[in-house]
Design a protein that fits this description.
heterodimer, A: alpha+beta, B: 173 residues, mainly beta, membrane (chain A), LPS export ABC transporter periplasmic protein LptC (chain A), transmembrane (chain A), transmembrane helix (chain A), LipoPS_assembly_LptC-rel (chain A)
């Protein structure tokens, strides 16, 4: 009760002061200030929550739009080591111009973020189609794959095995996967059950349709064995 | 006018190992064709063939020996023989040699401008401006030499000109 009574006292003082002529101009400016303040408060009371809501909506929408679409190369795991992106067991598949499937897997792929079209591959195993019926399996310990030109430069010994019994041993090979061409200027050895070719350089064109061997070509054909093989094959009907 | 003599050595057979050397080789799988160019030399047993260029045509649809297999395995057989064009296994259809041909077998030598070996009929034909066939000191010159590789019978034709033959008597033992 004590508090209330003191407040009542203040109210009386204010009423008495109002009547005093010297105080009137100060009082009207104070009143104006108070009026402006309350108007400002009324506006802010509405504006601030509105602003908060707007920000709350804008942020998630913006971050959704900025994120890129899915990344094409599938890889088991990837990590950064000395500034390079290292992917384990990368796998790349696609179709050649003749709409035949090709696939390429590797043990490791190393990609320099500064030039992401060039990927260094280790332990490469590629499957390239020669034609509808035969495919070539290519194994190479090391190579550089260029995504832009779709070419694979294998700089160490390469083995190519085709499904119709052909084995090709090269010391290096430059493959243009899209066009289905291959080129090497190092000695080559191609062997089949019934024959063997060696040469110092070789080019393969048109998906293996045309093979060109250059300098120092040696061909050994062993028809007798081939005949026997054919006989045996045709004998039991297996082809 | 033609002269015949027997030349048993001059032949390439389809079932004996062959070694071929050349500067360049082009294999066209789809045409079952292999083109050897540049110092081509072919060795099969006693026979040696040298030429500037050699085209080897493989049997396309794989008729070859096992006729029975043709229809059933026709496709795969065809494919197999096309595949074998890679290096030319047994079923060679015929061979064309060009650009100065030299064939030597034991003591017989034949030279000409062009030659063809037809593996099916086993006939060797050597032709050119001047075809020379010699056996030791005996020499036969004409413009066309046809050898039945099975029997070794060789026939030299002069095609209009004259066949020149020189025999050294004591060599007819």
């Amino acid at each position: 009760m004590l508090a209330r009574s003191s407040e009542m006292a203040d109210a009386d003082d204010v009423l008495n002061a109002a009547a005093d002529p010297a105080v009137v101009p100060a009082r009207s400016s104070a009143f104006g200030r108070a009026q402006r303040h309350s108007r400002r408060v009324r506006v802010l009371k509405f504006a601030v929550p509105l602003l908060a809501v707007a920000i709350a909506i804008a942020f998630p929408v913006y971050s959704y739009l900025v994120t890129p679409a899915a990344i094409p190369v599938k890889a088991d795991g990837s990590a950064f080591s000395d500034g390079k992106l290292v992917m384990a067991n990368p796998k790349l598949e696609g179709m050649t111009k003749k709409n035949l499937p090709y696939s390429m897997t590797a043990l490791r792929a190393i990609q320099d973020p500064k030039n992401e079209n060039v990927i260094e591959l280790e332990g490469i195993d590629a499957k390239l189609p020669i034609d509808a019926k035969t495919t070539a399996a290519i194994d190479a310990p090391h190579g550089i794959y260029n995504r832009e030109t779709n070419t694979l430069d294998l700089d160490r010994d390469v083995t190519v095995k085709t499904s119709d019994g052909l084995v090709v041993k090269l010391q290096s090979a430059f493959l243009d996967i899209g066009k289905g061409n291959m080129k090497t200027d190092k000695p080559v050895e191609i062997s089949r059950p019934d024959s063997r070719i060696t040469a110092d350089a070789m080019t393969v064109e048109d998906h293996g349709k045309v093979l060109i061997f250059d300098d120092n070509v040696h061909v050994n054909i062993y028809p007798a064995k081939a005949k026997a093989a054919n006989k045996k094959e045709s004998g039991d009907g297996v082809h | 006018q033609s002269t015949t003599s027997s030349m048993s050595g001059l032949k390439l057979s389809g079932d004996k190992p062959i070694q071929i050397e050349s500067d360049k080789l082009e294999v066209h799988q789809d045409q079952s064709l292999a083109i050897f160019t540049g110092n081509v030399s072919v060795v099969q047993g006693p026979t040696l063939l040298k030429a500037g260029k050699m085209l080897v045509y493989y049997v396309k649809d794989g008729k070859g020996e096992d006729k029975a297999g043709t229809d059933a395995g026709g496709d795969t057989q065809g494919n197999a023989s096309a595949g074998s064009a890679m290096t030319g296994s047994a079923n060679i259809d015929h061979i064309e040699v060009d650009d100065k041909v030299y064939i030597k077998s034991n003591d017989q030598v034949a030279t000409g401008d062009r030659g063809t070996f037809d593996m099916k009929t086993e006939v060797l034909v050597l032709s050119g401006k001047k075809v020379v066939l010699s056996q030791g000191p005996n020499v036969l010159v004409g413009c066309k030499l046809t050898v039945q590789m099975k029997t070794g019978l060789a026939q030299v034709d002069a095609c209009g000109g004259r066949v020149m033959m020189s025999l050294t008597p004591n060599s007819q033992k």
